[in-house]
Amino acid sequence: CQICLKTFPREYHLKLHQTIHCMEKPHKCQRCHKTFKTRWLASRHASKTH
Ligand SMILES: [Zn+2]
Ligand SMILES: [Zn+2]
């Protein structure tokens, strides 16, 4: 997967997996590949994790 850099044995699994990236999580952490529903969650993650 180009978004979260996971790999899958079959292209079918990859496409199934990529549907999760289509869901509403527009706020992406700048330092890793995690995404969040709200900007608040993203900034909380960044201050706790990084
Ligand atoms: Zn992915
Ligand atoms: Zn992060």
Automatic annotation (TrEMBL):
Residue ranges constituting the C2H2-type domain according to the UniProt record: 1-26, 27-50
Source lineage: Eukaryota, Metazoa, Spiralia, Lophotrochozoa, Annelida
Pfam families documented for this protein: zf-C2H2
GO MF entries: zinc ion binding
Keyword Lipid metabolism applies: no
Taxonomic superkingdom: Eukaryota
Keywords on record: Metal-binding, Zinc, Zinc-finger
Keyword NAD annotated: no
Protein's name in the database: C2H2-type domain-containing protein
